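Q: What does the predicted 3D structure of Transcriptional regulator, LysR family look like?
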Amino acid sequence: MAIRLHQLRALVAVADHGSVIGASRALFVSQPAVTKAIRELETDLGITLLGRSVSGVTLTPSGESLLQRARLIVGELERAEQQMATERGALEGKVTVGVSPLAALTLLPHAYARFRQHMPEVNVEFLEQSASRLVEGLRQGSLDFALAASYEGVSDASIETTEMLTIPIAFAVRKNGKLASATSLADLCDAEWIHSDTTNAYPHFIDTLFSEHGLPVPRRITRCTSQSLLYSLAISIDTVMLWTSHTLELVNTTGQFHQLDFIDISKHVKLQLMLREGAILTRPAEFFIRCIENTNEIFSLPLK
């Protein structure tokens, strides 16, 4: 039994596009060719990989299991082809970077500007995703690397992390709102607390913070992963917002927010560079990471 590369490409394409028709278009081959590749793969393995219904094509549990390896193999082959093109002197290539909002507000813009000066023809794709999806993308090889914020360290053994920045968190309210007069946590028990953390770390932190002071935990703790909506809510309604201290300085240039200094904060946000263990990076991806590392020194200093 030998699994062939075109079979794995077909499996990945069907999973990505949800149908044989979509896969055939993506691979520039006929529909029968895709169907044949999948059926031969199922026959060789002795396992059903796809389930078919009126709503489309879905992967069986065995298909999902194989898909993880297939993505990694197909992705690594594409990177090998890109690397060989670079060795031949070609300036093209592709780098896919997973990001979280904090990366966009700190290291990434300056690092990207430096990267573009030296590699103007390389195709770059930025994907903003939750922490769990970033880890999955790294595992499957769909991301070259990720630059992401984390309230808690990544514990996945297959992911290597390097801490780039550690930034304190800050709480703020509208300067002219009714919450601006608060002087203690007791004044905020009935307030709405809004955050952008995709994990449960922030709600747990708030629960612990109020419980340690013998106060009832706020009933309204709202998650908002859209940074644009988060800012709009912050200036539109009376709510307690969680920011990083760096982000608060950036959005508070006109002084519309009031920081709640009486809240004792011990937590920090870590901005981490994340790589799949044993990943072999292309030359453009390696250079992009060097640009991020070189830019890190700028943001390790306090804002003026």
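A (community wiki): The structure tokens above were generated from the sequence. The chain has a mean pLDDT of 84. The radius of gyration is 24 Å.
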